[in-house]
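Subgroup meeting minutes
Present: P.N., E.W., G.H.
Scribe: E.W.

1. P.N. recapped why we're keeping a running log of single-chain structure predictions: easier to compare across weeks, and new members can see raw inputs and outputs side by side.
2. G.H. added today's entry (386 aa).
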Amino acid sequence: MAHVAPTLEEALGFVSKEEVQELVRMRRDFHMHPELGYQEVRTSGIVAERMTQLGYDVRRGVGKTGVLAQRGRDGRMLLLRADMDALPILEENNVEYRSTNDGVMHACGHDGHTAIGLMTAARLAGASFPGRVRFAFQPAEEGGQGADRMIEEGALDDVDAAIGLHLWSDLPVGKVGITVGPTMASVDEFTLEVCGRGCHAAMPHEGIDPIVLGSRLVQDFQAIVSRTVSPLESAVVSVTKFHAGSAFNIIPETAQLAGTVRTFSEKVRDHVHAKMKEIVGDKGKLHIVKKTRVLVNDARMCEIVRRAAAEVVGEENILDDQRTMGGEDFASFLAGVPGCFFFVGAAPSKTPEPHHSPRFNIDERGLALGLEVMTRAAHLYWKNPA
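Output recorded in log:
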């Protein structure tokens, strides 16, 4: 008999009404009280208290404001991760659970990730499984390299595999994205000071205009991708800041530029950096900071998560190529152990807003589906031989 995928209503039926209500309550509470990276004092306090109540061995203050919580004494250790930080954005949503911290907003779904993590922990606290589980409630995913700080303080010690998820506003509820191999891009930040010679704007021949130089460099940077990177590879060079000058009649001494580089391989990453340095030469001072590495999913762990997702939403609702040039520091966990980072559809039915938008929101049915897939994937991991 052919497999018949469950309807969305049937899939949501895997989660009890009480669990759904608690997921929504927690997510909205975290949404109302967002905290920036390394400032997640309230959030991590709630997490640590709840995990202690559930009977986990809890470590607070890991990576400054992170929480590690563990259960089990023997067998393979599976790490499940949820990020907690918000963004410096003034929320524009007119909802009853709007941010009460002006200028700070959960505009990426981390409020939902934390709620899913806590509910998964509640399920596993009352379950029997032949292994060990460690939850990493992580600070500062949004550019603060919170994963690296937690790893430096033992988050990956004795861990055999890792799973993480992201509520995704580009996918309808009921869809799950699972991609083997490179899935999210490396993230680099660059700054560039273009060096000129200031003069009166009425006599430009007496100076060296850094604005003209900077404009040429912006265009030359774009040609790196279009003319020196293979069309079969992926790369982005985006200049996002260009500041110069103080008055309408002065050609300034310098111009300041900044932006980001994104790639899916270290080889292309190094190539782009080398080309940027070559183009700038002695025209300015270029500084590149490698922030987040490429996120690479393990094939075996993806198959485990895929089987779990198929049981919930049906094979036909799993998307195999959900790569994005966005970055994610869960990549650091996956650089140390095999794992899978997957996307859970959470697009609102009316005009979905992109991540990091002041109007970002989710369809909260995605919370229940994320919980069910995560729980099943954990159990399937322990059932499968190493």
